[in-house]
Write a structure and sequence with these properties.
Length: 256
């Protein structure tokens, strides 16, 4: 199960690991917290419209959903495997600070229902506020609703920033040239984002043969928990993390 803040996060940070999961025959789910609808500058440029209203944003969100599904298709993940929660884009920090009880319960129900063996979540070190806020939200989901409910391994990924807290302890995901080519095709599906962010989207990826590998960092497990990630304190947003050294994720063949 991959949980992402926006359409395009899957292609930028998890294309290779998703392909590995597909190859292993794993049952896959991709959950998008937002539709990425609050994305005014690319929309203004592409639609040649300065003032954007709710209808405009809704239309943009639908476009971004379609781009995500097209990208997933290139990675071997069918549209039926994706869900969009339509939480307000660019508002996840606000949501977190407001308590987000409904969202916590909603996410907890989704994770508990699917009961993934492996969970990929945004890193708290990601510099995009929606990503780091979602990271904290998911740790709260774990500590408040899911602790002790079955074993799963959790891995975090970074889309924005070069945090040493992440990269110094992240594992490199092995990739082939064929997988890298599929990743580039998946990224290319996000046409709404390429107009203004093409350079950033392809930075470091280079050619299919020399692309920078994806990284994943194991999400910490408190010593007292069998399968938890983290001790989260809501009042101060302090996350007590430890980082056990564990091998890169592998996937079991499952049917669902
Ligand atoms: Zn994002």
């Amino acid at each position: 199960m991959l949980i992402a803040a926006h359409p395009d996060d899957e292609s930028l940070a998890c294309s290779i690991v998703l392909q590995h999961a597909v190859c292993a025959g794993a049952a896959i789910r991709v959950i998008y917290a937002t539709d990425g609808e609050n994305n005014p500058w690319p929309q203004r440029v592409l639609e040649r419209k300065w003032r954007l209203n709710g209808t405009d944003r809704e239309r943009w969100g639908k476009l971004r959903r379609a781009e995500a599904l097209a990208a997933l298709d290139f990675l071997g993940v069918g549209a039926s495997r994706a869900s969009f929660l339509a939480v307000a884009d660019q508002k996840l920090t606000e949501l977190l600070m407001s308590g987000c009880r409904v969202t916590l319960k909603r996410l907890a129900a989704i994770v508990a229902d699917w009961a993934p063996t492996d969970l990929l979540v945004p890193s708290i070190s990601d510099t995009h506020p929606d990503h780091s806020a979602l990271a904290v939200i998911l740790r709260l989901v774990w500590s408040e609703y899911l602790s002790g409910k079955g074993a799963m391994s959790a891995w975090s990924y970074v889309v924005h920033g070069r945090s040493r807290a992440f990269f110094d302890r992240a594992e490199t995901i092995r990739q082939t040239t064929v997988e890298m080519a599929a990743k580039l095709r998946a990224i290319s599906c996000h046409k709404t984002q390429l107009k203004l962010s093409r350079k950033r989207f392809f930075a470091g990826l280079g050619t299919a043969a020399s692309g920078a590998p994806e990284k994943a960092r194991p999400v910490s497990k408190p010593a007292t928990r069998q399968c938890g990630w983290v001790a989260a304190q809501r009042g101060t947003d302090l996350l007590k993390l430890s980082a056990p050294i564990v091998p890169a994720p592998t996937f079991r063949r499952t049917t669902r």
